[in-house]
């Protein structure tokens, strides 16, 4: 039985992970989420934004399941990390923007899952970090690579090399979080926040995700060339832009 549930709210698909008591994510749940994302990628007429959140009080995703990680370290689950790579690539590559809605703890693998999304919003009770060094290990799901690119090497070094945990307000100032919402009614408020994106013109929203994601991985000049190509495609196919031109000419 999957620990992920899917609910549709307007153009927002809310994916909730519930695996009490600690909401640790196991390899089976990683594969399940990848399957869900592949399905949602084919539903662009209905789903414009994908939001991940936690179904256990005060926890987004608590980290990787310890028993699975131990087995992977012994070489007993050789396909474990490829499943994680598949998942994070899907978060990157599906047409819809992906948002992590963090209502509490997001550390280790939970933070790495959030970092694989394009945007992160937190409640006032959210706290984030990569504390693996304090446990005698290192980040293993992209945290040491994505976090410095997001918030800069100085603040990321505090998280990765010292195991510092960051509050929601600290994460917001660093750009780790895009917004902080009240803890009371957080998930509903997060869905409404995502709906603002879902209400935008689909062609432009999906193209903007493509240029944003791919541009981060390209040299500047190549990124600008790619942006221009997407811009010309959108200008030629967007009905909303055609309507804007008609109104502007009146």
Estimate what percentage of residues fall within beta strands: 15-25%
Mean pLDDT: 94
Low confidence ranges? none
Q: Could you state the CATH homologous superfamily of the largest domain?
A: 2-enoyl-CoA Hydratase, Chain A, domain 1
Kindly name the structural category.
alpha/beta
User: What's the architecture of the largest domain, going by CATH?
Assistant: Alpha-Beta Complex
Largest sheet data: 6 strands, mixed
Portion of residues in helices?
Answer: 40-55%
Number of domains: 2
Shape: globular
CATH topological fold name of the largest domain: 2-enoyl-CoA Hydratase, Chain A, domain 1
Total strands: the figure is 12
CATH hierarchy, class of the largest domain: Alpha Beta
Strand order of the largest sheet: 1-2-4-7-9-12
Rounded to an integer in angstroms, the radius of gyration calculated over CA atoms is 19 Å
What is the string of helix and strand elements?
EEEHEEEHHEEHEEHHEHEHHHH
What would you note in describing this structure?
The protein has 250 residues and is an alpha/beta fold. The protein folds into two domains: 4-198, 2-enoyl-CoA Hydratase, Chain A, domain 1 (Alpha-Beta Complex); 202-249. Helices cover 50% and strands 19% of the residues. A six-stranded mixed sheet has the order 1-2-4-7-9-12, sandwiched between helices. Strand 1 (4-9) and strand 2 form a beta hairpin. The radius of gyration is 19 Å and the shape is globular. The chain starts with a strand and ends with a helix. The model has no long low-confidence stretch (mean pLDDT 94).
How would you briefly describe this protein structure?
This protein has 250 residues and is α/β, with parallel strands linked by helices. Helix content is 50%, strand content 19%.
């Amino acid at each position: 039985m999957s620990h992920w549930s899917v609910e549709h709210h307007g153009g927002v698909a809310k994916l909730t992970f519930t695996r009490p008591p600690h909401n640790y994510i196991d390899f089976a749940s990683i594969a399940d989420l990848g399957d869900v994302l592949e399905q949602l990628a084919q539903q662009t007429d209905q789903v414009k934004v994908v939001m991940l959140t936690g179904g256990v009080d005060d926890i987004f995703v608590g980290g990787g399941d310890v028993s699975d990680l131990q087995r992977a370290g012994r070489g007993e689950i050789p396909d474990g990390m490829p499943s994680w790579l598949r998942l994070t690539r899907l978060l990157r590559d599906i047409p819809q923007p992906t948002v992590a809605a963090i209502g509490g703890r997001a550390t280790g693998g939970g933070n790495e899952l959030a970092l694989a999304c394009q945007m992160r919003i937190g409640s006032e009770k959210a706290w984030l970090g990569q504390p693996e060094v304090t446990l005698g290990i290192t980040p293993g799901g992209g945290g040491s690579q994505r976090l410095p690119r997001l918030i800069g090497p100085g603040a990321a070094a505090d998280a990765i090399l010292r195991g510092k945990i960051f509050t929601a307000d600290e994460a917001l100032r660093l750009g780790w979080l895009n917004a902080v919402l009240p803890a009371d009614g957080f998930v509903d408020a997060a869905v409404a926040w995502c709906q603002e994106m879902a209400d935008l013109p689909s062609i432009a929203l999906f193209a903007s995700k493509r240029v944003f994601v791919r541009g981060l991985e390209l040299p500047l000049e190549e990124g600008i060339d790619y942006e221009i190509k997407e811009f010309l495609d959108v200008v030629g196919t967007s009905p909303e832009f055609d309507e804007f031109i008609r109104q502007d000419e009146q």
